[in-house]
User: What shape does this take?
Amino acid sequence: MNLTELGYVAGWRLARALPRPVVAAAFRAGADRAHRAGGGGTARLRANLRRVVGPELPEAELDDLVRRGLRSYARYWMEAFRLPALSRAQILTGFRLAPDGVDRLAADVAAGRGAVVALPHAGNWDAAGAWVAATGWPITTVAERLKPEGVYQRFLAFRRGLGMEILPTHGGDRPAFDVLVDRLRSGAVVPLLADRDLSARGIEVDFFGARTRMPAGPALLAIRTGAPLYVASMWYEPDAACASIAGPLPLPDADSGPLDQRVRVLTQHIADGLSAGIARHPEDWHMLQRMWLDQRGTGDDGSRPAAGPPAATGTA
Assistant: This one.
């Protein structure tokens, strides 16, 4: 077990053993230290949030937004570490999906058509997945396979322990996309993080006025299966992680063009929906990596997250 894995294990154990107010205060203090230190992740978050809020927001207000953003990210970590210790009732009360979203997903699962949900890196996507499983709906998603392998396996066990089926992006018995098609056709909910491409093969879209790449997986899955496609907005309230879903998005008709064109059109619609939700709750968008194609000098240009767990990804 290396130092990185030891750190995760210690975090899990301490966060679950100590009272929540104590743990929350410690994680908030850590976020404030990161804000004062102004490292690479903080600089990337600042650059990304500047793009979201525009040039008119005064620097002092942007600085406060970055501080709140780091606190939100720390809250995600704290709650993720504590999730395995929660009862089903606590999971169900710790996350809230807007009632119309509950009704839509319930109908999709009951009808056996499943649903694709495009998510932002915002709020608490692990709590959302645990809530879906605790509600009794089948849920399958994909997680990026990162090193060290020990950390990846621990997060895999963590999410599976919450009731989620997790597929690796590569190295599985079958291609992840093929498995997701099967799961949708059997009525599963398939949530996929969709606001950042990790494959270098993503679809170019306009996002807050500049070009970036987003994964083709959510759009391609919906077009291939006919499953309804929703776009989620995710944020925090003081007492719970929250979400709403918009859609289902209209799927381009086969007569409207070749498959790659239809995927591009639908992925742009996903980008528009994601941007609307992020604009409403920018402090809860946990994007500490380079996001736009024209960004330079804001830290790591690679595709791997600077910090964080293996992400459920829309790359399929």
About this structure: The first helix runs from residue 3 to 17.
